[in-house]
Write a structure and sequence with these properties.
Chain lengths: 173, 173
DNA sequence: TGCGAGTTCTTTAGGTGTAAAGCAATCGCG
DNA sequence: CGCGATTGCTTTACACCTAAAGAACTCGCA
């Protein structure tokens, strides 16, 4: 899953909803975490696959979209700022920016005050592309989640937000 | 992030929990989907990063682990069966199996009854590796989810399961 | 029998990701 | 000033992933 598709589907049969049945009570916590993780993983991969296809229709990719969307919010960020925001390594950002520059979506300039810094700016072409994609992207995501009831979506957002915060904290320490 | 880190963090500021504040009511449904998706994405990437590091300690990777875990459940699957289970393309499976075979974890045999089929079997070394990793993996996942309350984890599992089923259905059609 | 169609796997080209090493510029502190 | 440490970026080597084209094989049906 790439992003990719899957992980440990095999360690726990998880079709429909039979995952945590007839398990002694003292063992319930752990397997349920595995099952939740599996489902999260599969949702992630299915959604990502759809969004990838949509991005491909616009002749672009998710990584480029992420770059452009970040620049739309704040133009002229340095590579390391982008690396932090996009949660990928600096080397990876170098490549994404290079390909985007090759395709005329961004341009790089060296900061004259600190010549280590490479700032990235949207070109007209890049701005036009991201402007056109943003609304559609929001619509697409909305469509993918449309079958989830409003209440469930709210609680999903809350719990995932908490989980994310915990994971971020533990990653730091 | 694949597996990667992010997506559209920039289209909607999403720190802590301020995402859906002061938005006109008629617009609430869509942005909330985006925000939920963002959080799901970030959880996915943070967890995947941790698990990747754990797998690296055993000298392996998530893709290989997925392959081995599937084979542990049913040895001798064909590449296309594995491709379906792992939710990746057939070409990708070819590569993962090739590298795992190179490292002595699996071996491939041609089915004599239908010589198009390549069946993949665990070697002793592969079986030993996956046996040793499975428990630790479950523990690691449990630790990552340990801060989520039992009730929240249950509802998270339920909603993600429903979402996954909807996504699978719509992907088919 | 034989041939077209479908299935299974591999190959190719290219993007995305990591870790680790290397290079260049700046900073900090004596 | 000067030099070691740090920071920012690139490069390298490799794994992973997709889409699309191609090769090998089987099957169905005339």
């Amino acid at each position: 899953m790439s992003d990719r598709a899957r992980f440990l589907r095999s360690a726990l049969s998880d079709s429909a909803d039979t995952a945590v049945a007839d398990v002694p009570l003292r063992l319930r916590t752990d397997p349920s975490a595995l099952s939740v993780w599996l489902r999260l993983l599969e949702c992630h991969n299915l959604i990502l696959g759809q969004l990838r296809k949509e991005a491909a229709k616009d002749g672009t990719s998710l990584a480029r979209f992420d770059l452009l969307a970040n620049l739309m919010r704040r133009d002229g960020m340095t590579l390391s700022e982008l690396s932090r925001r996009m949660l990928v390594t600096a080397g990876n950002v170098t490549g994404i920016v290079a390909r985007s520059e090759r395709d005329g979506l961004v341009r790089r300039t060296v900061d004259p005050l600190d010549r280590r810094l490479a700032r990235v700016h949207l070109t007209k072409r890049g701005r036009k592309l991201i402007d056109g994609m943003t609304k559609k992207h929001a619509r697409d995501v909305g469509a993918l989640f449309s079958r989830v009831a409003e209440d469930d979506r709210a609680v999903l957002g809350r719990v995932l937000g908490e989980l994310r915060d915990h994971l971020r904290n533990e990653a730091r320490s």
